[in-house]
Write a structure and sequence with these properties.
220 residues; Ribonuclease Rh, Chain A
Length: 220
């Protein structure tokens, strides 16, 4: 009886979550643009959360830029946790993404919170994520650096533009800590239309890194 009650309780929570999303007007496919979020893995792995993430930060492979997620966005704000039937992510699909999203927990979270609002379905969402990541060329300077890189937000953008001439500066947003003098790079965000073409970022990305110096810990 307890097990039945637990199942019914979980089903009730799911129903409430779907009802809440519908009440907010959030439905799959209703958004304005995508943001491809690329995290600097060494910064994450140096954080308290990253130290406990053995999959991304404790294995033999060391990562530089990895996919945090592909986020459907409104011009201001964003939808999240849209009601979909395929909330469960099978292991085969998770395993297929681990080379660019090196955390099972992350793959599941990104689908449920962000991918569910894409309107693409699970496979379509992860295919779009991989297609965009494969299209972006990371500048050689940032590929598995053995030493700390000290640069500026503007220089990081220029470096990405030099190897990705199909992007525009207004399609790139650099995110870092709150320090104004010297801050670690958290992530770089690239904005795309629903058709996966570059476009200017919206208000969500306007709060960009304002640090004078940008620090990128080395890949260890």
């Amino acid at each position: 009886m307890r097990r039945i009650a637990a199942v019914l309780g979980a089903a009730g929570l799911v129903a409430l979550s779907i009802a809440a999303a519908l009440a907010r007007g959030e439905r799959p496919g209703r958004f304005d643009y995508y943001t491809l979020v690329l995290s600097w893995s060494p910064t994450y792995c140096a954080s308290d959360q990253g130290r406990d993430d053995r999959q991304q930060c404790g294995g033999r492979r060391r990562y530089d830029f990895v996919v945090h997620g592909l986020w459907p966005q409104f011009e201001r704000g964003w939808p999240e946790s849209c009601p979909v039937e395929d909330g469960f992510v099978p292991d085969r699909r998770i395993d297929a993404m681990l080379d660019i999203m090196p955390s099972k927990r992350l793959v599941i979270h990104e689908w449920r919170k962000h991918g569910s609002c894409s309107g693409l379905g699970q496979q379509g969402y992860f295919d779009a994520t991989r297609a965009l990541f494969s299209r972006v060329r990371v500048p050689a300077r940032y590929i598995t650096p053995a030493d700390t890189i000290v640069t500026t937000p503007d220089q990081l953008v220029r470096d990405f533009l030099s190897t990705n001439r199909w992007l525009g500066a207004d399609a790139i947003s650099v995110q870092c800590g709150n320090a104004r003098d010297r801050a670690r790079l958290d992530e770089i965000r690239l904005c795309f239309t629903k058709g996966l073409e570059p476009r200017p970022c919206g208000a969500n990305e306007h709060r960009a890194c304002r640090a004078r110096q940008l620090v990128m810990p080395p890949v260890r």
